[in-house]
Write a structure and sequence with these properties.
Helix content: 40-55%
CATH superfamily of the largest domain: EAL domain
Strand order of the largest sheet: 13-14-16-17-18-19-20-21
Mean pLDDT: 89
CATH topology of the largest domain: TIM Barrel
Largest sheet: 8 strands, mixed, barrel
Bound molecules: ligand C2E, calcium ion
CATH architecture of the largest domain: Alpha-Beta Barrel
Shape: elongated
Number of domains: 3
Number of helices: 21
Radius of gyration: 40 Å
CATH class of the largest domain: Alpha Beta
Low-confidence stretches: none
């Protein structure tokens, strides 16, 4: 009897547990926001559970044969995968899954099935879970689009373009084809952005991009690379230069202004650089790099043009890159030294002063010319610490000479525009003058005339302040740039340095002679001292003497030399 009661208690306890479990599973099911389909193969039974009505409100499934009703709920191409999921009793794994799109056109459903088997391996039960993944799928599609296309222009994104270009390269290898890669960059885009705002900038990028999209085709890839830069790749199986044709069409288009949504019209020019496979490079990234380098060359050569790759361009670029890297190290290791070149009065050949000229010995012991590295230092900003070093080092030498040798002469320092324009420039130089206790009237700053073009008012104001402290100002390389004799009038300078190119040709060329003589006469009339640069021969010296030039600097009377040699020279005075 006890035994029976025990069995009954046990059964009711188990029953209670099953009821609790059932409650729990039902709750899990119902709150999962999924729908479930349960199939019992042994009893040939089907049940729908949880949120079935949310997914398939009009589909009632009571028997196995009803399952086919689900086909009408999905888009046609998903019918077969759905059938497999519903009816297959054996899958490679016990779990199978697939994604179907409902025929409402927007709902994506992930279906996952799990099957149970008996000991003989026959399927007994199957559960299929339906999960709404529309949100995730739409986000994913958007991300995929963004990975392949540029949102602003609809052109290929940079990464996708590189992948497609790699396919071109593989094809060209097999077929001996040619690929032209052309970078196109809108000239002075920064001015558009700064002047008219980035919204207008974006609109231009978009409109021009949409125009370029018209070239897209089986053999032409067009991409928006970055900001105002586009890259076009043209596969040319027959090797004819259709890239020229495309550039011509771009040129035709930009003759007409772009109409902006603000009602304004905007004209633009572009620069382009072309590199071809296999001539310039044999792999995708090198090809892109070469085209980009060539485009920058086109920009440097005055914009609004197309430039084709050739080996010297690459070599020049590589040299600049290596100088640029070494230059950054040199600023820390200070592998610079100062040389000084004497300047003499024509009259009596008495020493007028010395010009400080920087020298750079790189780690391999090679001397790199300032004519090469100063422009690079100006571009990457290292000119600022270099320039400060030049001023301090030269004034230090100069102060030591003044203490040792009792003579009056001038120290000339070359100042870059970037250095000169810094707010702290005047304070810095005054501090160094104070530190080494030199006479400001014996210092001269050489500034090139090209600097004046940039910001005439600000530059001349600074010149006036410097001159109030007694510092002399010299206009360097006069005649090379935008020189116009008319603007010399009223310029707050003390000295005019006539560029070497005039001295070189004055003797032989009548026209140059006329200009040189007018420069000297005009400078004299305005009260400037004149210094002729690069005087190499007696004949040039005599000529300059004859036309009334005040001072001479050049190999004839002294090359740039280390400070010890200047000391010997001062000893002889
Ligand atoms: P620059 O200021 O016009 O300097 C004169 C250049 O002509 C120097 O070249 C000098 O060595 C060279 N030279 C002088 N006399 C003769 C001659 O008779 N014949 C020939 N063929 N050349 C002569 P360097 O030293 O190579 O300097 C080149 C340029 O680099 C300078 O031109 C100047 O613009 C810049 N530079 C040099 N040192 C500095 C510096 O410390 N700071 C800045 N910002 N620029 C510098
Ligand atoms: Ca100079
Ligand atoms: Ca010069």
């Amino acid at each position: 009897m006890d035994d029976l009661r025990y069995q009954v208690d046990l059964l009711s306890a188990m029953n209670q547990r099953l009821t609790n479990d059932e409650k729990m599973y039902r709750l899990i099911c119902d709150t999962s926001s999924n729908a479930f389909l349960y199939v019992n193969f042994v009893k040939n039974e089907v049940r729908t559970l949880a949120n079935w009505n949310f997914f398939f409100p009009d589909v009632e499934i009571r028997h196995m044969k009803d399952l086919a009703k689900l086909y009408s709920q999905v888009e046609d191409k998903y019918v077969l995968p759905l059938r497999d999921l519903l009816f297959l009793e054996k899958t490679e794994m016990n779990v199978d899954s697939g994604i179907v799109k409902l025929n409402d056109g927007r709902t994506w459903v992930e279906c996952e099935s799990a099957i149970l088997y008996d000991e003989s391996g026959s399927a007994t039960d199957k559960v299929i879970r339906f999960k709404d993944i529309s949100k995730f799928k739409n986000q994913n599609d958007e991300l995929t689009y963004m990975a392949y296309y540029d949102v602003l222009t609809g052109l290929y994104s940079r990464n996708y373009f590189v992948r497609l270009l790699s396919d071109f390269v593989r094809k060209a290898e097999e077929e001996n084809g040619i690929i032209a890669v052309m970078f196109v960059d809108i000239d002075d885009f920064r001015k558009i952005n700064d002047g008219l705002g980035i919204i207008v900038g974006d609109e231009i990028v978009q409109q021009f991009g949409q125009f370029l999209a018209g070239f897209q085709g089986e053999n032409v890839l067009v991409s928006h690379f970055n900001a105002d830069i586009y890259c076009i790749a043209i596969y040319e199986p027959s090797g004819n230069r259709s890239v020229e044709h495309i550039f011509k069409m771009i040129h035709e288009r930009i003759k007409e202004p772009f109409a902006l949504s603000t009602g304004q019209e905007l004209s633009l020019t572009v620069s382009a650089g072309v590199a071809e496979y296999p001539e310039a490079a044999k792999n995708t990234l090198d090809l892109i790099n070469c085209a980009e380098i060539v485009m920058f060359k086109a920009k440097n050569q005055g914009k609004d043009s197309i430039q084709y790759f050739d080996a010297p361009i690459l070599n020049e670029f590589l040299q600049n890159v290596s100088i640029e890297t070494k230059l950054k190290e040199a600023v820390f290791s200070q592998n610079f030294v100062m040389n000084f070149q004497p300047q003499y009065y024509v009259n009596g050949k008495k020493l007028r002063g010395v010009e400080a000229l920087i020298r750079w010995r790189d780690n391999d012991g090679k001397m790199i010319s300032p004519a090469l590295f100063i422009p690079i230092a100006e571009k990457n900003g290292t000119i600022v610490p270099i320039g400060t070093w030049v001023i301090e080092e030269s004034i230090k030498c100069f102060a030591a000479w003044k203490k040792t040798y009792d003579c009056h002469f001038i120290l000339s320092l070359n100042i870059s525009a970037i250095q000169y324009m810094r707010d702290e420039f005047i304070d810095n130089i005054l501090n160094i003058i104070k530190k080494y206790d030199v006479n400001p009237e014996e210092l001269e700053l050489e500034i090139t005339e090209s600097v004046l073009i940039e910001n005439f008012k600000e530059i001349t104001e600074k010149m006036c302040i410097l001159r109030e402290y007694g510092i002399r100002i010299s206009l360097d390389d006069f005649g090379t740039g935008y020189s116009s004799l008319s603007y010399l009038k009223g310029l707050p300078i003390d000295t005019l340095k006539v560029d070497k190119s005039f001295i070189d040709t004055s003797i032989t060329d009548e026209n140059t002679r006329i200009i040189t003589e007018s420069i000297i006469i005009m400078a004299k009339r305005l009260g400037f001292e004149t210094v002729a640069e690069g005087v190499e021969t007696e004949e040039q010296f005599e000529y300059l003497n004859k036309i009334g030039c005040d001072c001479i600097q050049g190999y004839l009377l002294g090359k740039p030399m280390p400070k010890e040699d200047i000391e010997q020279l001062l000893n002889q005075i």
